[in-house]
Amino acid sequence: MYADRKAVLSLALAVWAVSTLPLTANDTLDLGNVRVPRGEVVQGMIEVPAAGDGVSTSIPVTVFNGAADGPVLTLVAGIHGAEYSPILAMHRVVRELDPAEMSGAVIVVHNANLPAFQRRTIYFGPHDLKNLNRSFPGKADGTVTERIAHVLTETVIKQSDYLIDIHSGDANERLGPAYTAYYAEAGSDEIRAKSRQMTLAFGLDTIVLFKGDLSKSRSRIYTSAQAVALGVPSMDVESGELGVVDDRFIDPIVSGALSVIRDLKIAPGKPAPTNTPHFIVDRARVHSEHDGVWHLAPRIQAGQYVPKGTLLGTITDYHGNPRAEIRAPASGILLIVFGTPPVNEGDNLVVVGMTDTP
Ligand SMILES: [Zn+2]
Fold first, then answer.
1. Which of 6, 122, 135, 212 could pair with 149 in a Cys bridge, judged by C-beta atoms 3.0 to 4.6 Å apart?
2. Spatial CA neighbour of 92 closest among 118, 62, 122
């Protein structure tokens, strides 16, 4: 959604004039301090000002404002700063787009959580130890992570017609296979249908159906959940693991993002949707009850099918004495499993995806 169009619309409504003015070639996209004229591409840094904590940061973006009218798609990478495959994939996506041949706009958020990227922290921002993907819609006067969420909500999500939030396993997580996901129970029929179409167009075979109607504010703390709650069809991507930089994780993100852009007819070209989707209808998790050291069981790999009760790993204390055996909580695909030794009480060690109701 274009800010200028909104301004024009409210003005038009105020004087009881027509409320459906077409976009003109003069439409500029405004993302805070980053302004992008029609038909141009601009690289800039959206400012996140300091508050009482004295910490300021910025959000690097590349914005393509197409020469012709069309929808605004936002691609978000780096919500978690140690998830590198989305961040590196965006460097390649921006080289594939030309605003002169685009109808609509693409906002590429290269690195949503620059403090976490710079300080190499997993899950949490280094200044406030808050998880950006649990901080939406954010607060203008909150901690720096909450202020990043606020700026993203106000300047990016609210101007988007579609959104893709791109992750990988974090630097301590094995993840497989790469998958997409959308909220299958939230929003209007139209939002669900558009979100689903995005996941199909992205091209990965495994699609997780997120549960929940997002009616409670605590269910809307995730980037894409906040977007759906604001009426923006959205999806998530997970590709990559353990801080590894590898084309086998990056390539599917590049091709998937371009395929969605083409499916939405923002840029010319044929989309490459999946023809063989399979759906994860529910997920089961195991949270650690101990602080200590995680030992992945032999031959356990993310992406494999595990029958309920399969030994996935053990937790020892810091001296090496056994404290707990962790077993598959349900039969299904092992989507995520911890791959490095540190484990803390409450950590989500395991996610199993079920292809049918257990
Ligand atoms: Zn993540």
1. 135
2. 62
In terms of C-beta density within 10 A (0-12 exposed, 13-18 middle, 19 or more buried), how is residue 346 classed?
exposed
293 has which bridge partners? 316, 342
Q: Is 264 exposed, middle or buried (0-12, 13-18, 19+ CB in 10 A)?
A: buried
Structural domains in the chain, CATH included, are: 2-263 (3.40.630.10), 281-356 (2.40.50.100)
Instruction: Dump pLDDT digits (tens) for 320-356.
Output: 999 999 999 999 999 999 999 999 999 999 999 999 7
- Residue 243 corresponds to which amino acid? G
Query: How many whole angstroms separate alpha carbon 58 and alpha carbon 140?
Result: 14
The residues, any chain, with a CB within 8 Å of residue 357's CB and separated by 6 or more, are 281, 282
Q: What's the gap in Å between 78 CA and the centre of ligand 1? A: 8
CA of 289 to the centre of ligand 1 (A): 22
Phi, psi of 132 (to 5 degrees): -55, -35
Block residue for tokens 């602080």: 291
The DSSP-derived string for 268-326 is SS-----SS-EEE-EEEEEE-SS-EEEEEPTT--TTSEE-TT-EEEEEE-TTS-EEEEE
Q: Which of 299, 347, 349, 355 is nearest to 327 (CA)?
A: 349
Tens of pLDDT along 176-222?
999 999 999 999 999 999 999 999 999 999 999 999 999 999 999 99
Please, which residues have CB less than 5 A from ligand 1, an ion? 80, 83, 167
Dihedral angle over CA of 8, 12, 17, 18, nearest 10: 40
26 CA to middle of ligand 1, Å? Answer: 37
CA 122 to ligand 1 centroid distance, Å: 9
Distance (Å) from CA 132 to ligand 1 centroid: 9
